[in-house]
Structure formats: structure tokens, C-alpha cells
Design goal:
Blueprint (H helix, E strand, L loop, with lengths): L5 E5 L3 E7 L7 E8 L5 E10 L4 H15 L8 E5 L2 H7 L8 E9 L6 H4 L5 H12 L5 H10 L10 E3 L5 E3 L25 H7 L8 H9 L1 H20 L3 H27 L4
Parallel strand pairs: 1-5
Antiparallel strand pairs: 2-3, 3-4, 4-6, 5-6, 7-8
Helix pairs in contact: 1-8, 5-7, 7-9, 8-9
Length: 275
């Protein structure tokens, strides 16, 4: 396999912790400094999951690799950190009563702030409207809609975008794909009609029509994208799901089948939207 896009790091690579972030309900996320495999250091975010939500690590690396393969703007670097007890104790984690999963997901810091932060003084409806005004002119909108449909991402919210001062956008947080954070083999129904919140946001009130053709064309690339990342995905899935063969087989089949049928599925979904 070619060099992995996901780096393997140990606790000593976490150089400092600067406190817990506000966004993110599925895990404890900390701003930190990371020393990467090549020795480069950068600011980053370390995402620690409760043992009961250990699939969050699998979901994060899966979302990162597929989104990167789609050409979506994700943080530049990502890795898996094996936690030791000393580091866990230093975090003073409050929301993991069943214990902290021994692996964490880390991404380098991307510029910008989330709409949750930018529009914290606005009501939820007004924050959605303001965010939509930015997104509707963004070149990554159609590919991201198609990606969320492929990955059955039902948790695209205003904390999952980072918008910098120039209006550039980065996407983060894939803990809940596919379907939800604690998916089972039975829940991964490849022909399922899952909620696409980004489409809901952009068509809310019927005021911002979607260019259906652009979204469908973005989905047409998914079989090619899946082939390009499949080898690395399968290596990671085997590492984390090797003892759970039903999940291991299900996630591969789910992404393969939804990639092959994505353009038809999106075309049908978008043709029924109130635009």
C-alpha cells in the first residue's frame, strides 16, 4: 500500500493541550500541538471518544479519506493517536463514564471559525440563513452534498464547517458517518433513503434552488473515488473491525454500493425537493 494519508502517532506526539473545544457532542475534543511523523509540528485538534462510541474513530478516518478523495477541503493532516493513561489523566475528561477509548483521532488545525461560533448571537434559523448565503456561492457545495448523500451523513450541522476571513471553507467532524456513530451491520442499508441535512439547509423555505445537475455529476465520480481510497480504507477497517467481521463486511459493501448507485439516487431525491 502507498504511504497512508492517516498517520500513526503515540501519546508523546501530543506536545501540549490548550483546553476543550465547544463544538462536538460525540467526543471530547482538545486543541493541542502535534508532532507529526516527519517531525513537523502544528496546531491540531485531538478527538477522544468514550469506549461505548469507539466506532467514532473508524467513522472519522473513513470520512476523512473519502472526503479527501472527493477533493473536498479537509484539514491538511490527520492521524490516529494511541493514548496512554498519563495523557488521558491530564485531560480531566468528564463525559466518558465508561472509560476513554484507547485510540483518538487528530487533525491539523484548519483556518476559520464555525458558523456556530460566528453567529452565536443569532437564533438558529437566522444562523442557518446566514450560513446558507455563504454556502450557496461556494464551489464545494455540490460535491459536499453528494458526499453527504454517499456517506449517509445525517449530522451535517453548523459546527461542521470552518469559514475563514476570505470566505474559504473547510469541512470537519465525521463521527456520525455512516448513518450514526454507533452503526451496526443491520443499519447499513445501501439503498436506504437517509436524511441529507445540507440539502435541507439549502432548500429550507424553498428559496435557494439547487443545481441538480452539478450535484448528480459530483456523485458520478464516486465509483472512481472509492477505487482510489479503497485499499487504505480496507487496511484501516481490518485494523479496527477485524474482530467484528459483520461490521467489516457491511461498511465495505455499503460504500461500494452507494458509490455505484449515487447519481441515480440523488437524481430521484432532488427531483422531489420543493425548489
Amino acid at each position: 500500500m502507498k504511504k497512508s494519508a492517516i498517520e500513526i502517532l503515540n501519546s508523546q506526539c501530543v506536545r501540549s493541550l490548550r483546553g476543550r473545544t465547544r463544538d462536538g457532542l460525540m467526543a471530547e475534543t482538545y486543541a493541542c500541538d502535534i508532532s507529526w511523523e516527519d517531525g513537523e509540528q502544528s496546531r491540531a485538534f485531538l478527538k477522544c471518544f468514550p469506549s461505548s462510541r469507539s466506532l467514532g474513530v473508524v467513522n472519522e478516518l473513513t470520512g476523512y479519506l473519502i472526503a479527501k478523495g472527493c477533493g473536498l477541503p479537509v484539514p491538511q493532516r490527520a492521524g490516529i493517536v494511541q493514548l496512554n493513561q498519563s495523557l488521558v489523566d491530564s485531560m480531566d475528561i468528564k463525559n466518558c463514564p465508561d472509560g476513554v477509548y484507547r485510540y483518538a483521532f487528530v487533525v491539523s488545525e484548519a483556518p476559520g471559525r464555525s458558523p456556530n461560533s460566528i453567529y452565536s448571537d443569532l437564533s438558529e434559523n437566522l444562523a442557518v440563513i446566514a450560513t446558507r448565503e455563504i454556502l450557496k456561492g461556494w464551489r464545494g457545495l455540490s460535491p459536499l452534498m453528494a458526499f453527504d448523500e454517499w456517506a449517509a451523513n445525517q449530522d451535517r450541522n453548523l459546527g461542521n464547517f470552518l469559514i475563514d476571513e476570505k470566505g474559504e471553507i473547510f469541512i470537519i467532524d465525521h463521527s456520525n458517518i455512516p448513518v450514526d456513530i454507533c452503526w451496526t451491520s443491520e443499519s447499513l442499508v445501501s439503498e436506504g433513503n437517509f436524511r441529507n441535512i445540507l440539502i435541507d439547509i439549502m432548500t429550507w423555505g424553498g428559496q435557494v434552488p439547487i443545481e441538480e445537475g452539478f450535484v448528480v455529476r459530483a456523485a458520478e465520480r464516486h465509483p472512481e473515488v472509492y477505487q482510489s481510497v479503497k485499499e487504505e480504507l480496507k487496511t484501516w477497517w481490518q485494523a479496527f473491525l477485524g474482530n467484528d467481521p459483520s461490521r467489516r463486511v457491511a461498511i465495505d459493501s455499503f460504500f461500494q454500493n452507494r458509490a455505484e448507485n449515487g447519481s441515480d439516487r440523488l437524481s430521484q431525491k432532488l427531483s422531489t425537493m420543493p425548489v
